[in-house]
Design a protein that fits this description.
Blueprint: H1 16-21, E1 32-38, E2 45-48, E3 51-57, H2 59-72, E4 76-81, H3 99-110, E5 115-120, E6 134-135, E7 138-139, H4 142-158, E8 162-165, H5 172-182, E9 191-196, H6 203-209, H7 229-241, E10 245-249, H8 255-264, E11 269-273, H9 275-286, H10 292-306, E12 310-313, H11 316-322
Helix pairs in contact: 2-3, 3-4, 4-5, 8-10
Amino acid sequence: MSAFPVTRLRRLRRTPSLRSLVRETKLDLGDLVYPLFVCPGEGVEEPLEGLPGIARRSIDLLCDEAEEAARLGVPGVLLFGIPEAKDDVASEAYAADGIVQRALRALGERVPELLLVTDVCLCEYTSHGHCGLVRDGEVLNDVTLELLARTALSHVEAGADAVAPSDMMDGRVGAIRGALDGEGREHVPIVAYSAKFASAFYGPFREVADSAPAFGDRRSYQMDPPNLREALRECELDIAEGADVIMVKPALPYLDVIAAARARFDLPIAAYNVSGEYAMVKAAAARGWLDERQAAIESLIAIKRAGADVIFTYWAKEVAQWL
């Protein structure tokens, strides 16, 4: 390579059109999925202090929000449910008339072009707030698998286009794949939260979903943040069990994990730009400390540059307007 002054890398940075021409990573609206939260009632919209611009909505207003997102070009949503009642066995998670199941049917009628992905977990539905069944203070893995599979199947029967298990129980991808295939739903993809870390960045989400554990924490089943090699093992196991997409969550503190997964695996990789990542930028922007649009786009491009094909982000609607 020639040395300066023959080589001048600034030549291609001089104008917006030159920068655009040689840009290595491009963010596209088609890369994004918008998380939505559905709650009981009618005409309900509950804004959340920790997540500005995000709210819990009853099914009627949820459909309005989804319709607007689709109109802006957002291709898909990730649906979380807040049930009317909770119990020790998360019965509302897999009930045919559960909140997510009813929302799926309504969304399918109102916005049929929208991709509907559902979060498959029990934490919003259990009285103790853990992601699996509990006995003597211990979260049980194997007996939880049947309920996760029932939940996923009930979502698909109600209209989900894909299911996304986020519980981090060992073997849950295989259990869900078996349940779906056994009912003739072999065409439905599984988006596995394969490397989901026990992170401080979930705080605002737990306010939205009302899903904080009543005792202890989730470190016995969510991943320990220092571990990269273990994250790749989790991805490898989920792929072997039938995952169609693997996910890293959170995104920004774990860009190295996304990059390592991209280098190792050929299937699509998703990343969740989680509530804490979003809330930090919103809070700083509200105080005039940074430009929200620039910071949000830069964050999402970093996730894409690390290797993510799909990004779950609360900025999806705003990005649709910015782009």
